[in-house]
Specification:
Blueprint: H1 2-23, E1 29-31, H2 32-46, E2 53-65, H3 66-87, E3 94-104, E4 107-114, H4 121-125, H5 132-143, E5 147-152, E6 156-163, E7 171-179
Parallel strand pairs: 2-3
Antiparallel strand pairs: 1-2, 2-7, 3-4, 4-6, 5-6
Length: 181
């Protein structure tokens, strides 16, 4: 049953991209900041977290080609889902922070972090492939021709860095928004 629910979340992450495509004049790009907020809201409501998990966003207003938006959406889905399910056991309160910004000429970093209990040290030092979610994040990072890292300090931080598709040129300044669900 859990696997079915996880699959439903993955499908919804992709369907949000298609919904956004149909609502815009340009059917090949997605405005990533609004997509991230919508996906986080959906996952927060799906897991019925109540008021104990809050989200903070630091997102550059950027349109991404759908070929990059889909893997980004699936990475976000896996990372947010893992944080909601495992970072805050027993109804513990916490914050999930998501940032997406330009780190140089056409280079971008997506970071999903939480201030939860963190990943067990044995998981980080193991040579085993880990969970399906983490394997998906690693594989999707490769699809983006990017790099993937995970840190365990005052919670868990997942970073994916990649080169932005040069076909899309419209971007706006970085905006920070704290949002409580």
């Amino acid at each position: 049953l859990t696997a079915i629910h996880d699959s439903q979340h993955r499908v919804h992450a992709m369907s949000l991209i298609h919904q956004k495509l149909y609502r815009t004049e340009n059917a090949s790009t997605i405005e990533i900041a609004s997509y991230v907020r919508e996906l986080a809201t959906y996952l927060n409501e799906s897991f019925i977290t109540g008021q104990h998990i809050h989200f903070e966003f630091q997102l550059e207003q950027l349109e991404m080609d759908v070929s990059q938006a889909v893997p980004i959406g699936l990475i976000l889905n896996e990372a947010i889902t893992n944080a909601i399910k495992y970072a805050f056991p027993d109804g513990r309160s916490g914050v999930i922070s998501i940032s997406f910004f330009n780190t140089g000429t056409n280079n971008y970093t997506l970071t999903i972090s939480d201030n939860g209990v963190g990943i067990p040290a044995a998981y980080l030092t193991s040579n085993k492939p880990g969970s399906l979610g983490m394997s998906l994040i690693a594989g999707l990072s490769e699809d983006l021709e990017g790099s993937f890292s995970i840190e365990n300090y005052k919670g868990t931080t997942i970073k994916v860095s990649f080169a932005h598709d040069n076909r899309v040129v419209r971007s706006a300044p970085l905006a920070t928004v704290a949002q409580n669900f």
